[in-house]
């Protein structure tokens, strides 16, 4: 028996080719795509305007399957987090963050991550594997239609869209899983699927310079860069990829990218680590990095209060320190926001839930460790604390 093809793996062009291989005209691919990505249909007999003969063919050859949901938690602030099974004991996360005028979904592109940033719990799990196109776009597919089902909103273009923005900031380095990531991005932008504008889709990278250039040519969406340090010596220790692509190269790549980007700035993510990267001197160094010398990088800073986890050995900067740091950037005319942390009653840092699945045997040991750290560093250790501006 031949294995079933997962139609979530196809971009619009590939879907036309697949329909062609079944002896069907290209417009059938468009119909099929709408059923899948606009109506959330996974059963071919739901697709009533497809010829019965095509539905029968598909039923024996294809499936529409997103990763299975292992857990589904909604926080009191409305943040909803899914833990998804991607096989062989691996799991990834997708998080929906509702706000006044938009709904943002944060998705993952790899199970684990090879970059191993010092402050990131995903990095500590190591790299397991790249996600397929279907596993990446499947997070959006599952979340959009699950949110609609929960709220009783009809599927299809007439029903109110729940996810208006997508950020690739979950587990993994998207640019190290380039082709599946770009295929999934194209599906997000396609008018016969989710029809999101490029400005509303953000890819976050730790700085894979050659791939930033490739992205600018193949699918330029909004760009965020995990910066976290103001000089190479510090960044080498926090984001090991910096040794390969140092700051001068990264800044130059950002400037090149902006020629093609849908927004006229790059967002720099900066995780605030107590006593490590959060001094006034670091803030001034950052200003010089993006404003000084030969290069000016049009940018915005997003300061992220670090979410401690036991193995990191790092602590979150104190709130007044974060505000003082932001003040220096803002005084230099750089738009700066402090990330409001969400969903604090459903878990802790990125990658932490997923780690639990792989590592059930060590849960007891980790809980003991967590208690030990709490005694040492206070009750808020391992929790997200909201900073009001
Ligand atoms: S911060 Fe991003 S790139 Fe760095 S280890 Fe974590 S998932 Fe990977």
Characterize this entry briefly.
The chain is built from 13 helices and 14 strands. With 389 residues, the protein is of the alpha/beta class.
Characterization of the model:
This protein is an alpha/beta fold and 389 residues long. The protein folds into 2 domains: 5-63, DNA polymerase, domain 1, CATH 1.10.150.530; 68-373, TIM Barrel (Alpha-Beta Barrel). The chain is 37% helix and 18% strand. It has 13 helices and 14 strands. The chain has helices at residues 12-21, 26-37, 52-61, 121-124, 133-151, 178-189, 209-218, 232-238, 247-258, 280-291, 319-331, 352-358, 363-377, and strands at residues 5-6, 62-63, 68-74, 80-85, 91-99, 102-106, 110-112, 127-130, 165-168, 201-205, 222-226, 266-272, 299-305, 335-338. The strands form 3 sheets. Strands 3-4-5-6-9-10-11-12-13-14 form a 10-stranded mixed β-sheet, with helices on both faces. A two-stranded parallel sheet has the order 1-2. Strand 3 and strand 4 form a beta hairpin. Helix 1 (12-21) packs across helix 2 (26-37) and helix 5 (133-151) runs parallel beside helix 6 (178-189). Mean pLDDT is 88; it is low at 347-364 and 380-389. The structure holds iron/sulfur cluster (SF4). The site of iron/sulfur cluster has 12 residues, from helix 4.
């Amino acid at each position: 028996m031949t294995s079933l093809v997962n139609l979530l793996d196809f971009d619009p062009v590939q879907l036309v080719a697949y329909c062609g291989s079944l002896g069907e005209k290209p417009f059938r691919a468009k119909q099929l795509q709408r059923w899948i990505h606009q109506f959330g249909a996974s059963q071919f007999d739901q697709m009533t305007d497809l010829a019965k003969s095509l539905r029968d063919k598909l039923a024996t050859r294809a499936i529409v399957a997103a990763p299975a949901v292992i857990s589904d938690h909604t926080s009191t602030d409305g943040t909803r987090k899914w833990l998804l099974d991607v096989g062989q004991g691996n799991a990834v996360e997708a998080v929906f963050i509702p706000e006044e005028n938009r709904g943002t979904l944060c998705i993952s592109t790899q199970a684990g991550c090879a970059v191993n940033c010092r402050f990131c719990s995903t990095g500590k799990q190591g790299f397991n594997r790249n996600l397929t196109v279907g596993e990446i776009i499947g997070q959006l597919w599952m979340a959009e239609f699950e949110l609609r089902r929960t709220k009783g909103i009809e599927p299809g273009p007439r029903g109110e869209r729940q996810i208006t923005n997508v950020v690739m900031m979950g587990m993994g380095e998207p640019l190290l899983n380039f082709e599946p990531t770009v295929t999934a991005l194209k599906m997000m932008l396609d008018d016969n699927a989710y029809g999101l504008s490029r400005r509303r889709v953000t890819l976050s990278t730790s700085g894979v310079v050659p791939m930033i250039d490739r992205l600018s040519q193949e699918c330029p969406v909004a760009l965020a860069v995990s910066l976290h340090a103001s000089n190479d010596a510090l960044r080498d220790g926090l984001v090991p990829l910096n040794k390969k692509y140092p700051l001068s190269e990264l800044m130059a790549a950002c400037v090149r990218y902006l020629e093609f980007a849908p927004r006229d700035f790059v967002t720099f993510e900066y995780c605030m680590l107590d006593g490590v990267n959060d001094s006034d001197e670091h803030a001034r160094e950052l200003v010089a990095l993006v404003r000084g010398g030969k290069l000016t990088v049009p940018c915005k800073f997003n300061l992220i209060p670090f979410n401690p986890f036991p193995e990191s050995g790092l602590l979150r900067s104190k709130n007044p320190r974060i505000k003082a740091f932001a003040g220096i950037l803002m005084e230099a005319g750089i738009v700066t926001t402090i990330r409001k942390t969400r969903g604090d009653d459903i878990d802790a840092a990125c990658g932490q839930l997923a780690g639990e699945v792989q590592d059930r045997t060590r849960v007891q040991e980790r809980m003991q460790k967590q208690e030990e750290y709490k005694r040492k560093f206070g009750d808020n250790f391992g929790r997200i604390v909201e900073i009001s501006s």
